[in-house]
Write a structure and sequence with these properties.
mainly alpha; de novo design (two linked rop proteins); rod-shaped; transmembrane
C-alpha cells in the first residue's frame, strides 16, 4: 500500500511540474508575442515620423504665414517619439494626427501647394502608413487579448500571478482622438 501511495504521489508531482513548465512556457510565448506586436507598431510609427520632416521641408516656403502649424507638427512629432505606455502613445499619436490634419486644412488655402508633388506623395505615403499602423495596432490588441485571457484563466492564473505575469494594456485612443487623419484635395 505504501509503494502504491508513493508512486501515486510521484506521478501527481510529475504531472504538476510538467503542467507548471508547460504553463510557464506558454505564458512566456504569449508575452513575447505581445512585445513583438508592440514593436511592429513602433516600426510603423517610426516610418510616419520619418515622413514628416520631408513634408515640412516641402511646404515650408508656402507656410511663411502659418508657422504655428509647422511648429505644432514638430512639437507633436517630438512628443510622440518619446517612450510611452500604449495609452499615452495613442494619445500622443492622436495629437500628431490632429496637427497633420490642421496642415492639410490650411493647405486648402494654397491652390498651388495642393498640386505639389511632395504633398501628393506625402498624402499617399501617409495613407499607406496609417493603414499599416492600424493593422499593427489590431495585431497588438489581439496579442494582448490572448495573453490577458491566458493569465486570467484557471488554473493558469495561479502560476501566472506567482511567476510575475501581469495584464497588459490595450492600445486604444480616447474620445474624438480616435479619428484618423483624413486627407482630401477635392
Amino acid at each position: 500500500m505504501g509503494t502504491v501511495l508513493t508512486i501515486l504521489i510521484v506521478v501527481v508531482a510529475v504531472v504538476i511540474v510538467v503542467y507548471a513548465i508547460a504553463t510557464y512556457n506558454g505564458l512566456v510565448r504569449r508575452r513575447n508575442e505581445v512585445e513583438e506586436a508592440y514593436r511592429q507598431i513602433d516600426v510603423q510609427l517610426k516610418r510616419r515620423y520619418d515622413l514628416i520632416p520631408n513634408l515640412l521641408e516641402g511646404v515650408k516656403r508656402y507656410f511663411r504665414q502659418e508657422q504655428d502649424v509647422l511648429t505644432e507638427i514638430t512639437r507633436a512629432r517630438s512628443a510622440a517619439m518619446q517612450p510611452h505606455s500604449p495609452r499615452e502613445q495613442a494619445q500622443a499619436e492622436a495629437r500628431l494626427s490632429g496637427a497633420i490634419g490642421n496642415l492639410f486644412a490650411v493647405a486648402e488655402n494654397y491652390p498651388e501647394l495642393r498640386s505639389e508633388r511632395v504633398l501628393l506623395d506625402f498624402q499617399e505615403e501617409l495613407s499607406s502608413t496609417e493603414n499599416k499602423i492600424s493593422f499593427a495596432r489590431q495585431h497588438y490588441n489581439d496579442s494582448v487579448q490572448a495573453y490577458n485571457t491566458k493569465i486570467q484563466s484557471f488554473p493558469a492564473v495561479i502560476f501566472a500571478r506567482a511567476m510575475g505575469f501581469t495584464e497588459r494594456e490595450y492600445f486604444e485612443a480616447a474620445g474624438p482622438e480616435r479619428e484618423s487623419v483624413t486627407v482630401s484635395y477635392d
